[in-house]
Amino acid sequence: MTGAATPSGSDFESSEISPGASLHIRQESRRKTSRLRVSWIHNMGPDAAQKCLVPSCLLRGSRSFPSLREISRRSEELWGLGIGGSIDRAGQLLIVTINAEFAEDSRLPGGEAVLADAVEFIREVILQPHLVEGCFDEDTVSSEVSQHRRSIEGRFDDKRSWAMQRCIEETCHDEPWRFHEYGTIESLDQATAESVTADWKKSIGSAPMHVHFSGEARSDSLTEILLPLFDGHDQQTATLADRFPLKGAGEVRELEEHFHGQQANLVISFRTSTGHGDPLQESMMIASGVIGGFPHSRLFTQVREKQSLCYSVNSLFDGSSGLMLVNAGIDGDTATRTRESILEQIDVVKRGEFSAEEFQMTLDAWDSRLRMTQDSPASLAEFDLVSRLVGRDPTIDGLRERVSCVTREGVIEAANRLETDLIYLLSPEDDQREDVQ
Amino acid sequence: MTWIGEEIILENATLGERVVERTHASGATVAYCRKPGYLRRYACFSTRFGSVDDRYRINGGPEVLLPDGVAHFLEHKMFEGPEEDAFVQFSRMGASANAFTSFVGTTYLFSCVDGFFPCLDHLVRFVQQPHFTTENVEKEKGIIGQEIRMYADNPGWRVYFNLLAGLYKNHPVAKDIAGTEQTIAGITPQILDQCWSTFYHPSNMILLAVADEDQESFFEAAGRLLSEQDLGPAPAVEKILTEEPAAPAREQVRQQMQVGRSKVLLGWKDLHPGISGRDLMRKELVTEVMLECIFGQSGPLFEELYRKDLIDDSFATSCQIHSDVGHSATGGDSADPDRLIDVIREEVGKIRKVGIDPADIERQRRSATGYLLRAFNSLDHIAGSYCGTRFLDGDPFEVVDLLAEITTKEVEERLQEHLIPDQMSSSIVTS
What we know:
The structure holds two protein chains of two kinds.
Chain A: E1 13-18, E2 21-27, E3 33-43, H1 48-58, H2 68-77, E4 82-90, E5 93-103, H3 115-127, E6 131-132, E7 135-136, H4 138-154, H5 159-171, H6 185-188, H7 193-206, E8 209-215, H8 219-226, E9 253-259, E10 264-271, H9 281-292, H10 298-306, E11 310-318, E12 323-330, H11 335-350, H12 356-373, H13 377-390, H14 396-404, H15 408-415, E13 419-428, E14 435-436
Parallel strand pairs in A: 2-8, 9-13
Antiparallel strand pairs in A: 1-2, 3-5, 3-8, 4-5, 6-7, 10-12, 10-13, 11-12
Helix pairs in contact in A: 1-4, 1-7, 9-15, 10-11, 11-15, 12-14
Chain B: E1 3-12, E2 17-24, E3 29-34, E4 41-47, E5 55-58, E6 64-65, H1 70-78, H2 86-92, E7 96-101, E8 106-112, H3 116-127, H4 134-152, H5 155-167, H6 181-185, H7 189-199, E9 205-211, H8 215-227, E10 237-239, E11 252-256, E12 263-271, H9 277-295, H10 302-307, E13 316-322, E14 325-333, H11 337-354, H12 358-375, H13 379-391, H14 398-405, H15 408-418, E15 424-430
Parallel strand pairs in B: 3-9, 11-15
Antiparallel strand pairs in B: 1-2, 2-3, 4-8, 4-9, 5-6, 5-10, 7-8, 12-14, 12-15, 13-14
């Protein structure tokens, strides 16, 4: 270990194990299980699809458990240890993760213990995969390419999420926010056993790496158990891109696309010119909350409840891209009316014509949401990691403090930064098919 | 007298959970589970009125037939108060609220960090104070209509409800919980009033809190709130069950819609009239262990199907019990749904001849214990598990003892009687 444990102000106790590799431990005695998260960080780009293949291939077999079935059997023997891979993003960065959750030793019958075996199993999955002549098995890679191709194609099946992604792609056509974390099918076609193996080696050897552990075990003995997870990480040589500058909106654009279905999805993107570290960032969070973050917000009470224009409607602010998106599931015939109604509610907030109670309820709702996060080790680990990556204070209490300092005037000022960029509508074709046999 | 009968303690040492249950003089079941150290507090008020409850009579009177989707419609409308929406008051207290309607029940819930008791007051009061007007009922039809269309465009939802339509010929479980735009068009304030009076009597309800609060303060508050309104004696409601044949309604249901990935589900139908409580939980658990041994990732099928590119990691299995009927289902996204059905049909036939390895069952026992430990970290899971099992007269923690008790012979017998071609139907959604 190269770095001493630091009172970093994080909800986790953090240590730098080697340059670019950190261990974050949080003791948690309220729960019945421990959680372990091992993440590697990459730049987001069109090649994200290839990086998605690494955790998938790792979970297909290790040296001692060389097939999916044997990996699963070992997980079951370890008292149902849950293990999986995930791909997330933090702004223009891609986070590739292996997650695990397993029973606390103190909860197991007959004095059994699982912690050391569980960590050793996860270590083997990550560092000693089943390789054939030094590479992932060709059939395994080919099968995971097919699987991931379908994951990319399947994004269309969640219409709301699809419409939001299409709106971001069109809004930010030359900015890194346009990339989806699953990557593109075109880049997937370039993947080979050699390239995925090389990506794996680069990840474990030189990508920025973070391990988060939350559980009952005490950190002095625990650190020794967790350190082998960093074997093979020499030092960080991969460099992460500088933060991409935020853009403002140009002329308001409109785009309509069609699909065979019943409900239209309206998404409006707004440029906020407000990113991480901006003095108005928390004010923008609250402004978005007053507009459409909660059931007391204006979009819910006015557009849904008063005008019956939709079932789902909300707004979401992303401090990385500086975008605020409003989305609503609507009847295609009411698209113009809904759009006007949404924009009218935003103008109301810009003019400061929201009540003191609406403002206070939004502050309270955010505070409550942040405090509840402290019951969830998975959410805390995600918050900690994303905060470190985007340069935000990684403590929940720090964010609560900043939110509590937001003023009504700050919310109005933030709302007046909102510039409409793209009005996107995913609407049903006229010749709708409803073909059930 | 606030409470009647004996206090019941439900607890389990492995899970480290304990629920104290009392019966209020109004007939309501009131329960409390303490979660020390958790900041989040959770409470729910649930009624045994879900989408399958479409026919009933009171005191031997005439049969009442309800329009499809009425339980869900009622859930939406309960939030509407004479002055303001119930959501707003929760927001004022820093709480978040929600509700959901299932096949067998409707649940109203909130979670908060501070102000648990004022939120509890509001929960009990708003669920006991309906406010239905012609205007607000008509307004809701537009909102629910959009909700129905949202689910109509969701291929995962469609493949599931199409499977139910394939499995069940007469039973209302096959109908969409929200109904259709046509069936909800006929809902009136009078129908909602009638449903509320019939099914929202406290004797048909459970009030549960999972929180780090003082237990006696909770029971004192719950007792006081449930005594505020005298809703009279419980109506003698007879829910009329719909007779359902053992055979599936259709061999297959196919739907064409624009999808990125085709979806497929296979289901095996199961009837269990007259079984409840421990027997039903045991049957469910034995079925789940059997399904995991066959279709789980450590079983004989998963890796082969995955390697053949017939399934992906969305492939999953479940056993579901809805009042007097139920089914097992397996499936997910597939590149070739028809071939997947053929392969599973053939492989299940082979597995039935070979049987299940006792070592698989032992591993599943350990694995299921770990799963339960994970699940009982969640306040929402504890509440869902408690209400779900109490609705079926079961004990939510008994599953741990049952897990130790079940035998290879039982699991084997369940395989032989349940996963048979005559009880199977399938559902495909594809472009």
